[in-house]
Amino acid sequence: MKTLAANRINWAFSRTDLMALLGALIVLVVLSVHSGDISWRGYSDRIACVNNLRHIGVSFRTYAADHAGRYPMQISTNQGGSYEFMPPSALAASSIWRHYRPMSNELVFPTPLVCPTDARTMATSWALTAATAGAGKIPFNMNQNISYFVGLDAMEIFPEMLLGGDRNVTNNTPSVIDVFRTGATAQIGFLGMNWANTNVGPGWNNRLHQYAGNIVLGDGSVRRINASELKAQLKISGDSSNRVAAPN
Q1: Whole-angstrom Cα distance, residue 10 to residue 99?
Q2: Residue 118: which of 142, 79, 145 has the closest Cα?
Q3: Residue 102 has pLDDT above 80, yes or no
Q4: Neighbours of 17 (CB within 10 A)
Q5: Within 13 Å, how many C-alpha atoms sit on residue 236's CB side?
Q6: pLDDT tens digit string along 18-41?
Q7: DSSP 24-40
């Protein structure tokens, strides 16, 4: 007669089986940690971008409080603004950065003008040249020093207008290039206001935040929105053109 012990199956691991299992577990742990690190880094970058735009919004509004409710784009350079670099100036497209420079006192440093997800040259001084910036400092003197577009016609009295936002905005969705369909140059265009066809019009390309973006409004509030939400925001902006200048 066969005994119970004789019918038992030996489930013991061999040393080889144990090593193979441990190796598989190590690989899974490494992949999990790496994936989590990427996810956390992406999340932290988005939060940093939102904080940058909050800082920019507060700076714009503080500047306006000291200049009769006007932003730099509405004030002459002779009075500390940037009006002379507005369209149709020949320098408008290459001088988008100049709309931020008048707020150097409010911003304190130019570092908030670069999104962490953007491969831009972050300026570390408001000086216009390397010589005046000082050793080891990067001057603020070109569009490559900024990640954010400027709402050229934004006014403090219109809280829903776009004041600024991520430069991957476009008025020709879907698109993977930083170009506007209309406007004098590749960097200056109109987002419009009313769009019946949801397959075209304002949106975001995949250069920064994967077909989404952050905006700061005239009231200083910051929102992370997709293409359809951008269209909805434009409809209540109070401006039919919504002209913006985005650095390429």
Answers
A1: 77
A2: 145
A3: yes
A4: 10
A5: 8
A6: 666 667 666 665 554 444 444 445
A7: HHHHHHHHHHHHHHHHH
- DSSP per residue over 117-184, as a string? TS-----S---SSHHHH-TT-----SGGG--EEEETT--TT-TTSEEEEETTEESSSS-SS---SSSS
pLDDT of res. 12? 57
Burial string for 204-243 (b: 16+ CB within 10 Å, else e) reads bbebbbebbbbbbbbebebebbebeebbebbeebebeebb
Q: How far apart are CA 191 and CA 232, in angstroms?
A: 12
pLDDT given for residue 216 in this prediction: 97
Q: How far is CA 207 from the centre of its chain?
A: 10
Q: Of all residues in the chain, what percent carry a pLDDT higher than 70?
A: 75
Burial class (CB in 10 A: 0-12, 13-18, 19+), 39: exposed
**pTM reported for the whole predicted model:** 0.78
The domains of the chain are located at 16-245
Q: Is the pLDDT of residue 104 over 90?
A: yes
CA distances from 170 to 58, 117, 232 (A): 25, 18, 15
Q: For 150-181, how does the pLDDT look when each residue is reduced to its tens digit (9 = 90+)?
A: 999 999 899 999 999 999 888 764 444 444 55
Query: If residue 105 lies in a helix (H) or strand (E), which one and from where to where?
Result: helix 104-107
Q: What is the pLDDT of residue 38?
A: 40
Q: HSE of 119 in the Cβ direction (CA atoms, 13 Å)?
A: 1
Determine phi and psi for 63, rounding to 5 degrees. Answer: -60, -45
Cα of 226 vs its chain's centroid, Å: 12
